[in-house]
From TrEMBL:
It comes from the Bacteria. InterPro entries: T2SS_E_N_sf (IPR037257). This is Uncharacterized protein. The lineage of its organism: Bacteria, Bacillati, Cyanobacteriota, Cyanophyceae, Acaryochloridales. Residues 158-188 are annotated as: Disordered. Residues 168-182 have a biased composition (Polar residues).
Length: 188
């Protein structure tokens, strides 16, 4: 059996995507394509998986399940693509979302900072699915007033020129003992 031109063309496309996303090296692709010519019944993704270079889920995503952006009605969050490609799992998504609330950084930037994916992989996904966002900064535009916790709000800044109250001023401010919501004094 001879490999038809469509299978070879598809293999090259899959391989090019995997190389462009920095998930395999050009040498790995060249090796897998050579082996595909020797083992005509095997698909490129199967060969890459057998070598341990990608997971089967990743090979399937970049091959048969490739989501062409122009065929999608609704925008898909980048994290969904990473999960469908087997690049991150649910625990990683949860960790990224928790960090995102605290830092205001974009999902992809946090995935890179946490070491879940490479910067080149993020860049590839942005180019493929969100070309309008190429070159945007890694942080999200957020309303600073929506963040009230000083430890989380990067917009609340320390004023080094502001004088600290003296010990006597601090004691005067705290002359009345603290009370609970129902008016009970804590120190009685």
């Amino acid at each position: 059996m001879t490999i038809g031109p469509t299978l070879i063309q598809n293999s090259h496309k899959i391989g090019e995507r995997l190389c462009a996303s920095d998930l395999i090296t050009p040498h790995q692709l060249e090796t897998a394509l050579y082996e595909q010519r020797l083992y005509e019944m095997m698909r490129l993704g199967e060969i890459l998986t057998l070598h341990g270079w990608v997971q089967q889920q990743t090979a399937d995503f970049f091959g048969d399940q490739w989501p062409y952006p122009d065929t999608q009605a609704e925008p898909v969050p980048i994290g969904s693509y990473f999960r469908r490609a087997g690049l991150i799992d649910r625990n990683m998504v949860d960790a990224i979302l928790a960090a995102q609330k605290k830092t205001g950084l974009r999902f992809g930037a946090l995935a890179v900072l946490n070491g879940y994916i490479r910067q080149a992989t993020l860049d590839f996904f942005v180019e493929q699915f969100y070309p309008e966002h190429i070159g945007e900064p890694p942080y999200m535009i957020i309303d600073p007033d929506s963040l009230t916790d000083v430890s989380v709000n990067p917009f609340i800044q320390f004023d080094p020129n502001e004088e600290m109250p003296s010990a006597s001023e601090a004691n005067q401010a705290n002359e009345s003992p603290p009370t609970s919501d129902n008016g009970v004094h804590w120190l009685d």
